[in-house]
């Protein structure tokens, strides 16, 4: 397995990201009881123009998971963390997050997830993130912001 930056402008890479993202967010939609997660309906063009940097895990040339971040001098926002559901529970999300944390040591890192997304909440807590805010972007959908300093 290889961890490297994902070249978003390459159509095949964006296509692989989109497929993983749609499948991963379908699982989250079921967990949180909200089917209209915006990322489920993005296009390849949106993926190719994502701000920030994406890092992916590959088996040979096949992308199996990725994280996208937007970093500034003092903060890092994790905007996407998607794993091919075939590889759930294989520590891929942990590997990607540990990579981000290691290259942005000393920065405030934050991420949002659904209040009822137990696996994500356990992962962030295990890596030292703490719940710092809760909000409702849509009626009946509660997100939690996790931060780590």
Describe the structure.
Strand 6 (130-138) and strand 7 (141-148) form a beta hairpin. The chain has a 7-stranded mixed sheet with strand order 1-2-3-4-5-7-6. It is built from 4 helices and 7 strands; from the N terminus they run βααβββαβαββ. It is α+β, with helices and mostly antiparallel strands and 149 residues long. The longest helix has 22 residues, at 11-32. The chain is globular. It has a single domain, classed as Aminopeptidase (3-Layer(aba) Sandwich).
Task: Please supply descriptive tags for the structure shown above.
149 residues; alpha+beta; Aminopeptidase; 7-stranded mixed beta sheet; 7 strands
Which SSEs are present, and which pair or pack?
Blueprint: E1 2-5, H1 11-32, H2 44-48, E2 53-59, E3 62-71, E4 75-83, H3 92-103, E5 108-114, H4 118-126, E6 130-138, E7 141-148
Parallel strand pairs: 4-5
Antiparallel strand pairs: 1-2, 2-3, 3-4, 5-7, 6-7
The CATH superfamily name is Gcn5-related N-acetyltransferase (GNAT)
Please tell me what the overall shape is.
globular
Helix and strand pattern: EHHEEEHEHEE
As laid out across the biggest beta sheet, the strand order is 1-2-3-4-5-7-6
Strand content: 35-45%
Provide the CATH topology.
Answer: Aminopeptidase
* Class from secondary-structure proportions: alpha+beta
State the total count of DSSP E strands.
7
Uncertain runs: none
Measured distance between first and last alpha carbons: 29 Å
Computed CA radius of gyration, to the nearest angstrom = 15 Å
Q: State the CATH class.
A: Alpha Beta
The helix content, as a percent range, equals 25-40%
Describe the biggest sheet? 7 strands, mixed
Q: State the CATH architecture.
A: 3-Layer(aba) Sandwich
Number of helices: 4
The average pLDDT score comes to 92
């Amino acid at each position: 397995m290889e961890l490297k930056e994902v070249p978003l402008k390459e159509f095949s890479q964006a296509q692989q990201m989109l497929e993983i993202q749609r499948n991963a967010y379908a699982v989250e939609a079921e967990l949180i009881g909200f089917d209209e997660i915006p990322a489920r309906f993005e296009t390849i063009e949106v993926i190719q123009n994502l701000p920030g940097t994406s890092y992916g895990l590959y088996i040979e040339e096949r992308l199996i998971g990725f994280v996208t971040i937007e970093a500034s001098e003092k903060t890092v926002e994790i905007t996407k963390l998607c794993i091919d559901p075939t590889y759930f529970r294989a520590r891929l999300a942990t590997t990607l997050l540990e990579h981000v944390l290691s290259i942005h040591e000393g920065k405030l890192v934050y991420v949002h997830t659904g209040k009822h997304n137990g696996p994500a909440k356990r992962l962030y807590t295990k890596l030292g993130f703490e719940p710092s805010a809760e909000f409702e972007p849509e009626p009946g959908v509660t997100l939690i912001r996790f931060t780590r300093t």
